[in-house]
Amino acid sequence: MTSRNVPSSRSLDPRLSEAERIAEAKRGDVTAFNQLVLTYQDLAFNVARRLVGNDDAASDVTQDAFWSAYRHLDQFKGGSFRAWLLRIVTNASYDILRARQHQARESLDQLMDETSFDAPDPGDLPETLAVRQETIQALEAAIQELPFEQRSVIVLCDVQGLSYEETAAALQINAGTLKSRLSRARRRLRDSVVQRRELWER
Amino acid sequence: MNDHLSAERLPHVHAMLSEYLDGQLDEATRQQVEAHLETCVDCRADYETLRQTVRVLRQLPTRPVPRGFAITASAPPRRRALFWLRVANSALAAVFIALLAARLVLPSLGQTTPARPNETSVRPALGLAPVSPNRTAPTVSEAASAASHTQAAPTAVAASAQPLVAAAARSSAATVPSIAAGPTEASAAAPTPIQVAAPVQRAPSVASSRREPAVAPLGTQATWPAWYDSLLGGVGALVLLMLGAVILIGRRR
Questions:
Q1: What is the extent of the structural domain holding B150?
Q2: Residues A46-56 pLDDT 10s
Q3: Closest CA to A199 of A141, A126, A121, A114
Q4: Do the Cβ atoms of A60 and B55 come within 8 Å?
Q5: Is B75 part of the contact surface with chain A (CB cutoff 8 Å)?
Q6: pTM
Q7: Is the same domain home to B95 and B146?
Q8: B174-203, pLDDT tens digit by residue?
Q9: Which residues in chain A are contacts of B76 at CB distance < 8 A?
Q10: CA–CA separation, A44 vs A58, rounded Å?
Q11: What is the CATH classification number for the domain harbouring A27?
């Protein structure tokens, strides 16, 4: 694989479409690939963070996923690149979780601590009902307690707002499975948040 | 109980609320669900709490990336480096064990084969031997004789000043019954470096000092060279160093 480190004017061209960037990257253009990294690193990191529940591990997962994506770019046969990339992120998250299951508890605490720093100002929320800090924390904790297959559906579909099609593609499941998992996961989250505290302002 | 009746007409409304929320139901089903929600308080509460849950999920704060994840063409990710470090460390550890085993088991570097003819030529001379030297380890009797000598003349051991030899001698001396070897023979044996053998489990008690002249010619270049011990120490240190690095890097992840 030939690789060009020097940014070529072409690979930095903002008018270049994603498909064109992917094609350039497939030819070994690292700069073109890094444009894709810039586009998706926030998404990839935040998905990984919620899947593994820990910032450091999420960084490792994200970096590994981009490396893996770069190496296996020729296996991407079109469709949603975002879904393809998130599939790699999800698999990498699953692998790292299996390897470090025992650290789940402490990472949850870390996530809870960090959440309090960048929670949205209730006044900024579009709806009249303010989302209380406790609700957000309870929900973050409840997400971490979901089984991985339900958590991944919730994170991709609800937290990141991917379509059913993209989520199903990223997780390699069919639409029926996705719908039932999503339904069960949402109910479970709802129940555990309600259980945790009576936070719901009706 | 009207609510209950209508709920039974739509037994799966409960399971469809999630899809209804996302606008994924076909028109007919959607109307059915809506009609049911109008009448059923429980299902309405169910729907409302689900809707709020999803609403909060969509607003969960995202975190900015702690660093850029752009890749460079040459530098492999740390995980990959760690993997190869582990492989290299394992390989090096295997080399170390092999070197150490050779050092402990073989009498000397490149001197194992010449030892055999001597051994066999000696054997017939041992007319009184009740136990023949161990066939699998031809060097056993030599070690025994070495042990007998070192026991008889401790000064000879001190002269040879090889820690490993001394250790071998000590371990065999513990099992070998003391044999009164003549002081003259012991001193004759002293200049010839003693061959190292694995600790003797059941040393034949007949390590006759008469065999000594037959063994002696072997000893001209029989010990392990000093560079071998340096190599052994160096490889061992490197293995430990790499092990430390692997543990350190692994922990930082």
A1: 139-219
A2: 999 999 998 99
A3: A141
A4: no
A5: no
A6: 0.55
A7: no
A8: 444 444 444 444 444 444 444 444 444 444
A9: 67
A10: 9
A11: 1.10.1740.10
